[in-house]
Structure formats: C-alpha cells, structure tokens
Design goal:
By secondary structure, this protein is of the alpha+beta class. It has three domains: 89 residues, no CATH class; 88 residues, Sandwich (Immunoglobulin-like); 217 residues, Endonuclease, Chain A. The chain is 25% helix and 31% strand. It has ten helices and 23 strands. It has an eight-stranded mixed β-sheet with strand order 14-22-21-20-15-18-19-23, sandwiched between helices. Strands 7-6-9-10 form a four-stranded antiparallel β-sheet. Strands 1-2-3 form a three-stranded antiparallel β-sheet, with no helix packed on it. The longest helix has 19 residues. The chain is globular, with a radius of gyration of 24 Å.
C-alpha cells in the first residue's frame, strides 16, 4: 500500500480549492498497486457497486451501514483506480462570519472568526482575505494568540472570496480556501438546451423517464460524513431530493414547526441553510421528477414558541417563497401547489407522507427541517405495516380538523 496526499476526493468538484494552495484540512488517500484477487466482476459493474453503497437493492449483496454513507458511484469510481481508503488529517480548524451590520448594498465589509490550532501556529501567521480571483488583497489581520479570535475590515464589500493564512516571516501563503456567503436568497434557474442548473449550480436534464422508487431502508445524513460544510449541505439536499421523489406527486410534511421560520428583510427572503437545502431538493424533485403538490401540517401552539413571525407574517412569507419558486418553474411549464394546514390536534413527532400507485408511504423523520444542520444529522426511516397505517390515520384526522391556507393560488 502506498499513501499519497490529496486535497479533496474529487478536486474538479471542490468549490473551496484554490489552485496552487493547500487546503488547511487535507486528506490522505491509500491505494493498492494491485488488488490481491480478481474483482473485475465488481469493478465493471455499477449495479453491484450501487448495491454496496445502498442505492440499489440486491438479494445477494449487503449494503454498507448506514446506506448512502458514500455519494452515489463513489465506490465504483475509486475502486477502478485501486483506491482503498481515505483519512482526514486536521491541521487547523477555522470559522468565519460576516457582520450583517456592515452591509453596503448587499455585501459586508467586516468579518470575524476563530482559528483553532496550537498557540505557536497562531503567533506565526496572519490572515488575509482576497477577492474571488485571488488577484487583489482586501484586508489582513493578526490572530489573538490566546483566544484564537480575529476581526478584519475589508477595503471593499465582499460576499465570496479567498480566505488565506500567511507566514509572518516569509509572507507566503500556508493554506487557504475559497468561501461563499449565502446572502439574500433569490432563485434563478438557468435553462439551456433542455438542461437546468439548480441552486447549487448542478446541471440536470429536463428529459428522461422518471421512476418513483420508495425507500427500502433507513437513510441517514450526518454533517460529520462530509469534508466541508458546503459539501455536507449539498449532500443533505441530494438525500432530501431522493426522499421527496420517492413519495410521489403529492407529499405531506407533518411537522410541529411547519418548514421553520422564514425572514423577509427589505422585501428580500433570508433562508436558513436547512431550508435552502430542502428548497433545492423540492426544485430538483419537480424539475427531474413529478412533484407538483406539497401539504405542510404544523401545530402553531408549539411552533409559535420558536418562530418569531406571527401567524399572518408566516403565511405571507411562505407565499412569497413559493411564488418565487413557481415564477421560475413556469419557465419549464411546471408548478408546485402548496397548502399550509394549522392543526388543532397536538403534533409531537415528524412524518413525511406520500403514495406509490395505491400504496401509502410514511417516513419517520428524526429532525424538523429547520433543525437538521443545527443538530448535525437526520434519519429517515420507512414505516411498514400497522405503524404505517396508524400514522396515516392520525394524519387524516389532523387534516380534516385543521385550518387550511393555500400559498400558491392553486387548485387541489
């Protein structure tokens, strides 16, 4: 076995990688020169690899646990180049935020953050923020060697750029990464030659046959499974898309907190990262699948303890969100009708409902949409038999007694 350092499993898709500069958290990959036995039957079969990853059912091949721990085709791609394992070696941990009070127009000028590392390291480096192309320095600062905290005022507003550490002696860059702030939310689906880009910039075909496949086993997402926060959020959205698409044309989300709080400032939507990932999954499920109806059932008596908006504000904010969704989907002749239900009966747990042909589908979801990233994980478990029937009956009773608000001026 030989070891070779890399900066990312797939550098071509690494949105944080700066050409010619190491990332501060690196991976080591371990490779066989040759496998000791003939596994050509596996290397040449995407289906077998997908079964191991947990994306396809196979009576003979048992999937890894948890299923979908690896991204789809990860095993198939890496085993062909004799890839064996990956190990993450952390050098420093960095955290940064922008000060919203320093916005000029739509971008901030003040940044602050924290560097977790040995004191000796913090004493030897300074931080620098450059523009996205890396040809203009917008600010530098030293780190408090005792606390690891830092603040920086930029020479011009910035929402995406390069965050770098520099050696104080030689002033050479030690490591760094590109960063992207989620600013004001705006949907802009780019449609070219029957393809469309989603909110993360991934391209999807508008043609092709869609096949609804209900989940057979539990799906699990954990922030710790991904190398960066950006990749973790993207993977969360992919898993949510798989869940939503498996529920069919009409889905019902039963959650005491609805979809979570949604802020509108200066007539502009501000989404949490959780809701951003969910919304991207909804768009993809409509674009490449057959989703056209969403019902959201919540319990206001419980939600009002966490949601800052009052009931009327929440309804209007959700209307603004889905109006923007449908304004964009109209470009490809699609629309999602959304109904909001205020349950009169208490809701404690979270269930997502759908239907495949005449069969009811119910999933138990461990976290509310607005708490997935904060908690760092979510588990989606299919219910079967009596338990599925009981939850479906509970949903029916709650829907029948609930107050309904249509958010999209649509017809049932």
């Amino acid at each position: 076995i030989k070891a070779e350092k890399i900066f990312q499993i797939n550098e071509e898709n690494d949105i944080e990688k700066i050409d010619g500069i190491n990332k501060c958290t690196q991976l080591i990959k371990y490779k066989f020169e040759n496998f000791q036995s003939d596994i050509s039957f596996l290397i040449g079969s995407k289906d077998n690899c997908s079964a191991i990853e947990g994306y396809k059912n196979n009576e003979v091949i048992k999937s890894i646990s948890p299923p979908a721990f690896l991204s789809q085709d990860f095993f198939y791609v890496n085993i062909q180049v004799f890839q064996l394992a990956f190990f993450e070696r952390r050098n420093i941990y960095s955290y940064m935020r922008a000060d919203r009070n320093t916005h000029k127009g739509k971008e901030p000028t003040n940044y602050y953050g924290f560097i977790q590392s040995k004191k000796e390291f913090r004493e030897k480096i300074q931080l620098e923020i450059m523009n996205f192309d890396g040809n203009s320095s917008l600010g530098t600062t030293k780190i408090d060697s005792e606390t690891g905290q830092w603040q920086m005022k930029l020479s011009q507003p910035l929402s995406k750029g390069q965050f770098l550490t520099k050696d104080l002696n030689g002033l050479e860059h030690v490591c760094g990464k590109k960063f992207y702030l989620i600013m004001d939310f705006h949907i802009d689906l780019k449609v070219v030659n029957r393809t469309v880009k989603d909110l993360y910039g991934d391209v999807h075909n508008l043609t092709g046959k869609f096949e609804q496949v209900p989940l057979g086993n539990m799906l699990e997402w954990s922030k710790d499974y991904s190398i960066t926060d950006n990749l973790a959020e993207k993977e969360l959205s992919r898993i949510l898309e798989k869940v939503i698409s498996s529920l069919g044309k009409e889905i019902t989300i039963c959650d005491p907190y609805f979809l979570g709080d949604l802020k509108v400032e200066n007539n502009t939507l501000r989404l949490s990262k959780d809701l951003f990932s969910f919304l991207n999954a909804v768009l993809r499920s409509s674009i490449t699948g057959n989703l056209n109806k969403i019902n959201v059932l919540g319990y206001w008596q419980k939600a009002s303890n966490r949601i800052k908006s009052d009931k009327i504000q929440l309804i209007n904010n959700y209307k603004k969100l889905f109006q923007e969704v449908n304004d964009n989907l109209s470009r490809i002749n699609k629309k999602i009708n959304v109904d909001l239900y205020f349950s009169k009966l208490p809701i404690h747990d979270r269930y997502w409902h759908g239907k495949a042909e005449d069969k009811e589908i119910v999933y138990n979801v461990s976290n509310s949409i607005n708490g997935i990233i904060k908690n760092g994980e979510v588990r989606i478990m299919p219910l079967k038999g009596t338990e599925c029937y009981k939850q479906q009956m509970k949903l029916t009773r709650r829907i029948e007694s609930a107050k309904k608000e249509n958010l999209t001026n649509g017809n049932d």
